[in-house]
């Protein structure tokens, strides 16, 4: 059941006459927690600066010794068009709190740096989904696989079977390859510039289509004096044997 509420406000203008306007409609239902109608602007592709930011952030995380070693795909099949970004932010908020809890609980000083590090890109070829490349410590991977299911459900997303895929990557080459794959929805005229071999129109999206965590964003890279061409790591640097793809079989 959907309940639509609207509120009228009264303002006093410059010449002391009253006028009214109606605030944007607020919609409540079991799948849409709270959003404003037409809250986000639409866009059709990842812009060049955003694509460059994702690739450089991936290199920076590798450079710091925290490779983005886990690739996650989350499907948003049965949601309003403005919901995926809000839901994703709630998921990452749960992830941040989980890392804070682990950091506070840990007695090992070497494990105190559990800063969230990730890049993401939304696509909508048929239905909304997000590609997430994230750093997960090796000893927390199994728990992360269980937790992310709860986080997605907590964000109000109804999961069908195979709506979450998780793959643990093994080398820097794998990580860079996935990052390059994630920007395949870039503006078509920039595909060759960024060596995107599998360019495809990834549909319309509402809100911020792609981005990075602050910890590996532009400001963090400038503060660390990181220059991708000079400091990036190349070659098949192995940090863990390749794990097979995990596709949880969800039951509604």
Structural commentary:
- This protein has 252 residues and is α+β, with helices and mostly antiparallel strands.
- It has helices at residues 48-64, 83-105, 141-154, 172-182, 218-223, 228-231, and strands at 3-5, 8-12, 18-22, 26-28, 35-36, 42-43, 70-76, 118-123, 128-134, 164-168, 205-206, 210-212.
- It folds into 2 domains: 3-35, no CATH class; 39-231, Alpha-Beta Plaits (2-Layer Sandwich), CATH 3.30.70.1910.
- The chain has 6 helices and 12 strands.
- A 5-stranded antiparallel sheet has the order 10-7-9-8-12, sandwiched between helices.
- A hairpin with a 6-residue loop joins strand 4 (26-28) and strand 5.
- Helix 1 packs antiparallel against helix 4 and helix 2 (83-105) crosses helix 3.
- The protein is globular.
- Mean pLDDT is 79; it is low at 1-37 and 240-252.
Task: For the structure shown, list the relevant keywords.
12 strands, globular, three-stranded antiparallel beta sheet, 30% helix, Alpha-Beta Plaits, disordered N terminus, alpha+beta, 252 residues
Low-pLDDT segments, ≥5 res: 1-37, 240-252
Gyration radius (Cα, Å) is 21 Å
Q: Could you report the average pLDDT, rounded to the nearest whole number?
A: 79
Query: How far is the N terminus from the C terminus?
Result: 20 Å
Order of helices and strands: EEEEEEHEHEEHEHEEHH
Helix- and strand-based class?
Answer: alpha+beta
The largest pleated sheet is described as:
5 strands, antiparallel
Helix content: 25-40%
CATH topology descriptor of the largest domain: Alpha-Beta Plaits
- Give the strand line-up of the largest sheet: 10-7-9-8-12
How much beta, percentage-wise? 15-25%
Q: How many structural domains are formed by the residues?
A: 2
Query: Could you say what the CATH architecture of the largest domain is?
Result: 2-Layer Sandwich
Number of helices: 6
Tally the beta strands: 12
CATH class of the largest domain: Alpha Beta
Shape: globular
């Amino acid at each position: 059941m959907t309940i639509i509420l609207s509120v009228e406000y009264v303002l006093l203008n410059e010449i002391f006459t009253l006028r009214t306007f109606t605030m944007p409609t607020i919609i409540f239902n079991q799948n849409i927690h709270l959003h404003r109608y037409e809250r986000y602007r639409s866009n059709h592709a990842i812009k060049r600066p955003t694509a460059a930011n994702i690739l450089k952030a991936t290199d920076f995380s590798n450079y710091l010794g925290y490779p983005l070693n886990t690739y996650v795909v989350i499907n948003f099949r049965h949601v309003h068009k403005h919901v995926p970004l809000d839901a994703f932010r709630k998921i990452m908020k749960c992830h941040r709190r989980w890392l804070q809890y682990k950091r506070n609980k840990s007695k090992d000083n070497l494990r105190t740096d559990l800063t969230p590090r990730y890049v993401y890109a939304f696509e909508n070829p048929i239905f909304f989904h997000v590609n997430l490349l994230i750093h997960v410590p090796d000893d927390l991977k199994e728990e992360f696989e269980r937790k992310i299911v709860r986080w997605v459900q907590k964000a109000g997303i109804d999961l069908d079977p195979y709506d979450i895929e998780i793959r643990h990557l093994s080398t820097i080459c794998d990580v860079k390859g996935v990052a390059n794959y994630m920007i395949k929805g870039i503006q078509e005229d920039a595909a060759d510039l960024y060596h995107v071999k599998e360019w495809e129109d990834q549909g319309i999206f509402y809100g911020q289509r792609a981005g990075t965590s602050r910890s590996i964003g532009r400001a963090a890279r400038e503060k660390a004096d990181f220059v991708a061409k000079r400091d990036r790591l190349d070659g098949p640097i192995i940090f863990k044997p390749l794990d097979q793809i995990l596709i949880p079989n969800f039951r509604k």
